[in-house]
Amino acid sequence: MFQRRFLFVAVSAAAIAIIGLLVVMALNNSGNRSQVTTVITGAQIGGPFTLTNHQGRAVTEQDFKGKYMLIYFGYTFCPDVCPTSLQDMTTALEEMGSDADPITPVFITVDPERDTVDAVAEYMEAFHPRMVGLTGSVADTSKAAKAYRVYYAKIPAEEGRSENEYLMDHSSYFYLVGPDGTFRDAFQSHMDIGELVQKLKARVSS
Ligand code: NI
């Protein structure tokens, strides 16, 4: 857990430093602060993807336009963090009642080798009825994860276990994407559910 946070912080710090440098360079060139900031924050997190949903249909980010997406990256074999996070996401949306109608909860696997369409479909049964599970090729899921600055790494199975019983270390955030497809916010997945509900309500109504 510490190592995972540290890596995320290190990667985030590097990204912020680079973005800061770009802002300074751009400001020096244009002198227009608001314009520059808008362009850069819009380009930081998120992007197009081509994946397969848990019903076996090919989907892209375009299929979600007009709705907010609340995205979580994880894997179905995850022993603890993923099921807890997805259950918290489900509870938060249920607590929001009809305020959650504009939000589509989305699970994207970082372990496509084991997370087949069938595995994801079965996993989705445990969570929000409108949750969409997405998988795809290693290249396509990796591209999606990278776009959202998700950290993940395979941890080889312990000795004496089957090679296929590996774990995935991964960062654990909820990403809110607007109806226009732009990134709006990220929330730590272990956040208090009441706080998550408040933040989502504020974001979705504004
Ligand atoms: Ni997990």
Which key terms come to mind for this protein?
single chain, 206 residues, alpha+beta, seven-stranded mixed sheet, two-stranded antiparallel ribbon, 9 strands, 43% helix, 21% strand, globular, binds nickel (II) ion
What does the secondary structure layout of this molecule look like, with pairings?
Blueprint: H1 2-30, H2 33-44, E1 50-53, E2 58-60, E3 68-74, H3 81-96, E4 103-109, H4 117-124, E5 132-135, H5 138-147, E6 152-155, E7 167-170, E8 173-177, E9 183-188, H6 193-205
Parallel strand pairs: 3-4, 4-5
Antiparallel strand pairs: 1-2, 1-5, 3-8, 6-7, 8-9
Helix pairs in contact: 1-2, 3-6
The structure holds nickel (II) ion.
Describe the structure in your own words.
It is a single chain. It contains six helices and nine strands, in the order H-H-E-E-E-H-E-H-E-H-E-E-E-E-H. It has a seven-stranded mixed sheet with strand order 2-1-5-4-3-8-9. Strand 1 and strand 2 form a beta hairpin. Helix 3 crosses helix 6. With 206 residues, the protein is of the alpha+beta class. The protein is globular, with a radius of gyration of 18 Å. The site of nickel (II) ion has 6 residues, from helix 3.
Please summarize what this structure is.
The protein has 206 residues and is of the alpha+beta class. It has helices spanning 2-30, 33-44, 81-96, 117-124, 138-147, 193-205; strands at 50-53, 58-60, 68-74, 103-109, 132-135, 152-155, 167-170, 173-177, 183-188.
